[in-house]
Amino acid sequence: MRDWLSHRVAAAPDATALVRAEDGEAWTYADLDRLVEETAGRLAAHGVDAGTHLGVHLSPRVGYVGLVHAAMRLGATLVPVGHRLTPREIGVRLDRADVDVLVCGADTERTAIEGAAGSGIPILSVDEPTDSDDSHGSDAPTDIEDSDVAALHDSDPEPIPDSTWNLEERLCVLFTSGTSGRPKAVEITAGNVLFSAVASAFRLGVHPDDRWLVTLPLHHAGGLSPVYRSVLAGTAIVLREDFEPGEAADDVDRYDVTGVSLVPTMLTRMLDRRGTLSDSLRTVLLGGAPASERLIERCENYSVPVYPTYGMTETASQIATATPAEAFKDPDTVGRPIFLTDLTVVDDAGDPVDRGETGELVVSGPTVSPGYYGDPEATAAATDDHGLHTGDVGRIDENGRVHVVNRLDDRIVTGGENVDPGEVADVLADHDAVHEAAVLGLPDETWGERVGALIVPAEQTDASEESSADDGDEGADGDGDHDESVAAEVADAEAADPGADANGSTVDATDVGNEPAETNGAIGDEVADVAQPDAAEADAAEADAIPEAAESNVTREAAAETDGERDPPIDERALLEYARERLSGFKMPRTVAYVEELPRTVSGTVDREAARDRLIEEGVEPSVPSVEFDRAGFEPADPEPADREESGAADREGSESNDGEERGDGSEAAIEDGTENGTNGIGTGAGVDEPTDGTDDDR
């Protein structure tokens, strides 16, 4: 078969394919086809052809949509690379996926250059490249071969040979985050995407005049899936290049949007801004994190058609999806498996359990990835005769509905993004001021979980060792050799919500020097198209997890910090600046505490529950304002002006009266980039963007 856009433009050239939300400019399928043909020809002039791994390091824009289809037209494999990743993270992904050519924009040029430094990967910009001498800092590569960026629009398009696809061929490579912190490159075939689109359509329904609002990053399955699916179904997407909750809510009404993929935090903020959503909306596909019962009830009260969904990158999006009727009746369920997808619940020995019993969820069917690119060991470890091990604990009730209980591993899910604690702990411990650190998730009402770090300062450890030597004490637990003795140990991982049954998790290596065991599959990296509910039990879990004594401790610490009395034992600014250079914003610790030694089990591994208790009781926000280390992803927008149109004000007033709780200050992360293991979703650069005015739409 040819690329899907070729088939669609032949069938419906005048149908609307794409609308840019910011200004309403629209492209028909014929317009989009011309854009894609030109873009593909320019890429071909730079050697992109069948088999090329084409990396795309761009923020959401019309040109990105063009590149998605241009890659398929050329027979190339698309490799989306998050536009807010650090150069270190970019470099890892380029290497893991064997990227041959990298496309960037003006806003991502510097990180593209630094991430690709030394690799020899050609870099193309959809915008006018900036002068390398003026635009890059002192850390930028000095080798001209590493820093040259070519303007894609300067190349004359070359004729494109016909490319055909079969269902087994690799359409794209999407990244997930394994528990060792090394991103896994998931192979997604044309068949995976096609079967996922068909199964999703059967569950959600598709109408010829459907319009799907795309608010999620296009390197997420939740953002990328609608781009492919719309062409298959002949429907339109409305692309919002920068998520702002009030504007996104208004887009639904402004463009008669019928569907949208969101993570719970996004939906909550949209409702906070507007009270409810337009009645044109038929589907809110909600995934990426557990959805709270309160949010589901709020959707029911305001007639928001919410479809809680569970999925992962490895399944090209959805695994199971609940209808609104199912969700309103049982907010805990993510519904039944989608068409042609089978779920098996297995025990620790890998044997299927009886209906209603809890175990690991194992998925099989035509949407499941053939494996991890370049990592046959990880592929073998994640699969068996039953299918792909998701790494999630759940059950299937007597009605066939799926309930996800918690995670087998220790990954933190914050605002729909997966964070590997071991990666964060390793970065912290690499700093001279830190001896070791344990990193884990803490309940957070806004984000589901936030990153917490329990830190042993290096100076404090040195002083403790000197004291032990002087006093003649053994000091076994603080003697600095202790990491080496437990370097490969793993502990029980946390359950998804802090009050959950301890059966849930099996891996932890959050302390420095502990390489977490590689686990099977993963949970919820997709952001909306694949799912798992939202900041869910966060409210109840947080209430259960913080006893009165802990609350008073937190209050005292917060008061001390406010009064300027807090005196951290290390230079927190230096540590956080060091970490932010190496980690995406959503991975940054939002709660810290300092201890003389990490709590450990008898086997020498970090005692996660004890560490969590210490962070709950003693943890505070870092002394450096979190806004200085903004998380990658959407941030809460500024409050709406008081004189906004009356309807918006009325909606907000109604929302406040029905749900006046505080939603947080927005310093926490959201959706942006590290994605990385499984969940559920082109400004205008010269030469790759809109066929009309050629405006530079880089924002």
Automatic annotation (TrEMBL):
Compositionally biased residues, Basic and acidic residues: 563-572, 606-617, 641-666
Keyword match Ligase: yes
Ranges of compositional bias, category Acidic residues: 462-482, 690-699
Keywords, ordered alphabetically: Ligase
Domain AMP-dependent synthetase/ligase: 7-373
Region (Disordered): 119-144, 457-521, 534-572, 599-699
Gene Ontology MF term list: acid-thiol ligase activity
KW Kinase (keyword) present: no
Boundaries of every AMP-binding enzyme C-terminal domain copy: 423-462
Domain of life: Archaea
The protein, known as: O-succinylbenzoic acid--CoA ligase
Taxonomic source organism: Halopenitus persicus
High-level lineage: Archaea, Methanobacteriati, Methanobacteriota, Stenosarchaea group, Halobacteria
